[in-house]
Amino acid sequence: MKYTEELLATMYYRMYQARFFEETLKSSSVSEKINGVSHLSIGQEATAVGACMAMNQDDEIVMSFRNHAQAIASGMEIKGMMAEVMGKESGINGGLSGSAHLSDVSVHNLGTSPAPGAAYPIACGAALTQQKKKTGQVVLCFGGDGTLDEGLFGESLNLAALWKLPVIFVIENNFFSGATAIEHHFAPKSVAALAASYGIPAVTVDGNDVIAVHSAVTKARAKTADGEGPFVVEAQTYRLCGYDTNDLQLYRSVDEQKIWQQHDPINLFTTTLIQDYQMDQAVLEQLKENATRSVKDALDYAENASDPSMNDALTPVYAK
Fold it and tell me: Are 63 and 70 in contact (CB under 8 A)?
């Protein structure tokens, strides 16, 4: 696939926007501007951006609970996201969902659930709808390796394969389910082997390489849209942060973290853009600055927004 400078620049901008957004959430949690904890995906931006930007604009996306980068990559507006995470009235869901229930149907993002594995059956339902309506649209579903041992994952793969649903499961394999390493909770030899047991094709890619992820999901989308049924893309990556903002990461070594820091997806992409696509360093610096400014503007917007009232909490409970 030929990558235009506009597409590459948008990928770069959104990866930095996701990084700055989550670093801001991290510092805001420490200063208690945000109630509770946030589940960050610092270091996994390439998977979110590469996958979402491989989809058509009218395709649907279902996120995992580690969702901020996925939401930004899907085109969700970050002022509303920041206000939502801070529980403000002008948040994208009225300040009632917080970080764990973000959704925005205006960009075909069906949202997320904090329940591990809950995204898979939701995505199957959405894919069944598209199949019945014969829209030609595909559903992209994110999940983490921590959900591979969930019954919901097996049931969803079985149904998707049985009915040849137009759904792509992108598994962000960061090798830890919370504080448990993958070898202690996942018995199959690989994600691809598990998918194959259901008759679903799968591919494994470097999840820190945004071009590799984009290429894999683009090919998967073409097959799925042609009626070949579901596809699994395993993106091997690493979160350069704790499970949540309170996690001290005592379960993994400093040496291991340093190795992955040297494989930072944004640094890798910067090198690729300069060496392989001859993009100007000054252009990249400007994109980085624009991304930083957009997050600062979002933070100012959220901090100056009003809190929702108690009545606002009841309004969206029942459909009118």
Answer: yes
> In angstroms, rounded to a whole number, what is the distance separating the alpha carbons of residues 136 and 129?
11
Number of Cβ within 10 Å of residue 286's Cβ equals 13
For the chain, count helices (H), then strands (E): 12, 8
Find all residues with CB under 8 Å of 314, minimum gap 6, and list them: none
What's the token pair of residue 232? Answer: 């699994």
Identify the CA nearest to 261 among candidates 285, 292, 239: 239
- Residue 199 has phi, psi (to 5 degrees) of 75, 20
Locus of tokens 């704790």: 242
Q: Considering only CA atoms, which of 113, 86, 95, 104 is closest in space to residue 24?
A: 86
For residue 81, the number of C-alpha atoms closer than 13 Å in the C-beta half-sphere is 30
Q: Could you tell me the CA-to-CA distances from 54 to 82, 192, 298 in Å, in that order?
A: 25, 21, 26
Q: pLDDT tens for residues 279-316? A: 999 999 999 999 999 999 999 999 999 999 888 888 77
Helix axes 265-275, 281-303, angle to 10 degrees: 140
Distance, CA of 54 to CA of 59 (rounded, Å) = 10
Q: Return the pLDDT at 174.
A: 96
Confidence at residue 247, expressed as pLDDT on a 0 to 100 scale: 87
Residue among 138, 18, 142, 137 at smallest CA distance from 73: 18
